[in-house]
Task: inverse folding
């Protein structure tokens, strides 16, 4: 493949050198074909960067919603028995605490990444900023998905319980708590999906510099 | 081979600039500077592709280990009481079932991706195959992390229990089961981290085509 490509290029160069007796029209042709897509690329790369910026704001909204919903959920039951606690909060379960911390980190990262996204809009050919965003976005895909999945596993258990391990469902008592927590999990999964789209967008924008 | 090729091209360009008699020498300069790094890029891109292939095999080993460890774990206790089951298997808990399915899918994807990785080694400038691998790798980052995190949340609960929700630790009884499951979770997290490295590698290779 290398040999065919390079031989093709050499052939072009030979015809170029033959035809370039005085005017070099082939050379000008090569330059024009190279220059025009570069300017066109600037157009669609800027479009991708603007879309990237909008997606980042959507992800920020989703991550902030997940953090605040989970963090402020605190249900106190009007009665209490000796078997069930009369208060449920996110810090009762380690998975929910991790969820709040991870989504808060994701929100902070998204705020910090907005200036870099603006740099990509202003300078569509900036490779460094895009590569940096892509690497951190990929790490954040794993981070937000881990938080959402761990919380989802616990929420599932809270809803349905598990007879094999004698873990009882607690959502009959804490229905409001469970509903809010489920909403937070969904918001975090939305943020994770947006992060996947951000990685793919950055990769497409990086493809031809 | 590379050096002779590039020297041949430079010679052609020199004759070209001589024959064009001072008309647009800057254009000829652009052609020469473009030709040589293109071949150098082929070298380090092939190196990245080979590293990509090795990482894929490592991820495959980790994902297969996670699947088989979790899938074959089946502990039967020599005694039974009326409170605890006397058999523990992965399909007792939905999170563990999801873990096995997700890691099996990840293993299958990794086997299917190996030919594409070989294509990237043979043809270092193939953009389509790299972009395809990057997109699917990103999705798989989310997938394996979700499986590992959900299983980790349940394993944590099985080890420590939770007094707030009256979920008791079961690892005193099923210690062998818990140890094997923990090992499977670690293997799945290793696979997820390798997937993140694969995405970053693909992005670096895509950077300049």
Result:
């Amino acid at each position: 493949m290398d040999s065919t490509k390079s031989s093709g290029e050499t052939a072009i160069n030979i015809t170029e050198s033959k035809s370039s007796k005085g005017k070099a029209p082939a050379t000008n042709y090569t330059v024009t074909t190279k220059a025009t897509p570069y300017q066109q690329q600037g157009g669609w790369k800027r479009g991708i960067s603007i879309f990237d910026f909008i997606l980042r704001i959507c992800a920020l909204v989703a991550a902030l919603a997940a953090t605040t919903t989970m963090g402020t959920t605190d249900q106190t039951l009007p009665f209490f028995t000796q078997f069930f606690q009369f208060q449920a909060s996110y810090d009762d379960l380690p998975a929910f605490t991790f969820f709040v911390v991870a989504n808060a980190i994701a929100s902070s990262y998204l705020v910090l990444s907005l200036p870099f996204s603006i740099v990509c809009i202003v300078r569509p050919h900036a490779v460094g900023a895009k590569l940096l965003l892509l690497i951190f976005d990929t790490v954040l895909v794993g981070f937000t998905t881990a938080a959402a999945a761990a919380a989802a596993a616990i929420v599932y258990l809270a809803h349905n319980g598990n007879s094999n391990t004698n873990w009882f469902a607690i959502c009959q008592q804490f229905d409001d708590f469970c509903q809010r927590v489920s909403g937070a999990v969904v918001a975090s999964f939305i943020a994770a999906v947006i992060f996947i789209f951000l990685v793919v967008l950055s990769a497409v924008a990086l493809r031809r510099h």
In short: Chain A has five helices and two strands. Residues 11 and 17 of chain A are 10 Å apart (CA to CA).
